[in-house]
């Protein structure tokens, strides 16, 4: 039974890292290419980008220090979601799911498997 638990834990960790690293690469390509039409406006980007970078750094840090990295991803994901909500309300729900969802999901998976 411990082999199954370890196998599930390893699978969930790799799944979470795949989600968060994939999202980080995709979002960094969009930010560097200036391809963010939904987040137009300098004020919005100045509030949004620090949270995105916190989530990306947390993603990279989670490869070495899982608990701290997952906490940073969770903080960054929640920060992005709150910023988008404050900027556009419920009309930004799709963007909140797209940008915040991968980091929050990956952070929860890492933290839950860390506790097991």
Tell me what the structure shows.
The chain has 116 residues and is mainly α. The chain has one domain (2-115). The protein is built from four helices and no strands. It has helices at residues 2-33, 42-61, 66-88, 93-115. Helix 1 (2-33) packs antiparallel against helix 2, helix 1 (2-33) packs antiparallel against helix 4 (93-115) and helix 3 (66-88) packs antiparallel against helix 4 (93-115). The two termini are 13 Å apart. The model has no long low-confidence stretch (mean pLDDT 79).
Distance between the termini: 13 Å
Strand tally, please? 0
| Number of DSSP helical runs | 4
**Helical residue percent band:** over 70%
Uncertain segments: none
Shape designation: elongated
The SS-based structural class is mainly alpha
Radius of gyration: 15 Å
Q: Determine the strand fraction and express it as a percent band.
A: under 5%
- Secondary-structure element order, as H and E? HHHH
Number of domains: 1
- The overall pLDDT, averaged over residues, is 79
How would you sum up the major sheet? none
């Amino acid at each position: 039974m411990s082999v199954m638990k370890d196998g599930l834990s390893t699978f969930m960790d790799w799944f979470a890292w795949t989600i968060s690293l994939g999202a980080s690469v995709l979002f960094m390509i969009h930010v560097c290419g200036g391809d963010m039409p939904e987040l137009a406006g300098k004020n919005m980007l100045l509030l949004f980008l620090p949270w995105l970078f916190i989530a990306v750094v947390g993603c990279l840090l989670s490869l070495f220090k899982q608990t701290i990295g997952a906490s940073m991803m969770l903080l960054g994901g929640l920060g992005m979601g709150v910023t988008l909500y404050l900027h556009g309300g419920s009309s930004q729900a799709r963007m909140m799911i797209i940008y915040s969802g991968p980091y929050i999901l990956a952070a929860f998976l890492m933290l839950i498997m860390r506790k097991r």
